[in-house]
């Protein structure tokens, strides 16, 4: 059982709380019983699992550790006090794991359109981890094909973001966009339509055609989407708000836009579920 803060494995876990180190290593941390159960169900590659020995005293904990052992991940017992220092939550459940980030892949907008993988979410400048996690979770629930993250957005592998996804991080591809201009140029050349939410827009969301090759663009609450995305937008739309609230947070707005898309596609007889 690990008891020292100076242990190299413990130091490695500590460093994975930093985005720069996560990026360089291609790893991230997941924490909690339910989150680890989701990872197993998704056959997600786990490198090492750190747990408090007390976890073995409960049926659910023993079952989880047994399944993790079968997955090939290294199981490492950690002293309770030391575990509380490497965990990110205020009330740790006594288990966390080092997981591998998914491999990047080439996005071909033309081929995806032909295959009817035609609903994307593009996140621009959302800084709140809870909002980004909600966007990812909503995109997963609505059957979106991918969530693309532009620079200036909070890291999707931030532990607070991960918890907010409620496991959806394992179900839908999350891709960081490095070449912003090249990515947008490829989308437009491939016939995709950027649908940008803007409270000042004239068109209502429900009046935009969201049935094919749609990219829902979600900006930050503070400043909305960037100027270049406004310029490239195929539709500027607003969510009707007959009440007195001035705005919606980014996570809620994304959910509304996604489910208007689902509604339109169901009405058009489209199969919306991802395989």
What does this structure look like?
The termini are far apart. Helices cover 38% and strands 19% of the residues. The protein has 2 domains: 8-100, 60s Ribosomal Protein L30, Chain: A (2-Layer Sandwich); 109-267, SPOUT methyltransferase, trefoil knot domain (Alpha/beta knot). The strands form 2 sheets. It has a 7-stranded parallel β-sheet. The chain has a 4-stranded mixed β-sheet with strand order 1-4-2-3. The longest helix has 18 residues, at 250-267. It is α/β, with parallel strands linked by helices and 275 residues long. It is elongated.
Q: Rg from C-alpha positions?
A: 21 Å
Global shape: elongated
- What is the level 1 CATH name of the largest domain? Alpha Beta
Enumerate the strands of the largest sheet in spatial order, edge to edge or round the barrel: 7-6-5-10-8-11-9
Low-confidence stretches: none
Total helical segments: 11
């Amino acid at each position: 059982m690990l008891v020292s803060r100076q242990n190299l494995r413990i130091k490695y876990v500590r460093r994975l709380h930093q985005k720069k180190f996560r990026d360089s290593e291609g790893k991230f941390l997941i924490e909690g019983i339910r989150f680890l159960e989701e990872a197993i169900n998704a056959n997600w590659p786990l490198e090492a699992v750190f747990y408090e020995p007390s976890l073995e005293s409960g049926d659910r904990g023993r079952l989880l550790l047994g399944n993790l052992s079968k997955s090939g991940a290294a199981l490492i017992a950690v002293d309770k006090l030391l575990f509380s220092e490497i965990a990110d939550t205020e009330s740790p459940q006594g288990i966390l794991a080092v997981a591998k980030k998914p491999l990047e892949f080439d996005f071909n907008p033309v081929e995806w359109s032909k295959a009817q993988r035609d609903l994307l979410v593009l996140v621009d400048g959302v800084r709140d981890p809870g909002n980004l996690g909600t966007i990812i979770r909503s995109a997963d629930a609505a059957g979106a094909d991918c969530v693309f993250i532009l620079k200036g957005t909070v890291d999707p592998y931030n532990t607070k973001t991960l918890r907010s996804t409620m496991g959806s991080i394992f179900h839908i591809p999350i891709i960081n966009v490095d070449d912003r201009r090249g990515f947008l140029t490829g989308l437009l050349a491939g016939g995709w339509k950027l649908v940008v939410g803007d409270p000042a827009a004239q068109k209502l969301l429900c009046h935009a055609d969201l049935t094919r090759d749609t990219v829902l663009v979600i900006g930050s609450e503070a400043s909305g989407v960037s100027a270049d995305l406004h310029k490239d937008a195929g539709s500027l739309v607003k969510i009707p708000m007959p009440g007195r609230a001035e705005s919606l947070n980014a996570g809620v707005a994304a959910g509304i836009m996604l489910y208007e898309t689902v509604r339109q596609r169901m009405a058009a007889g489209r199969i919306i579920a991802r395989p």
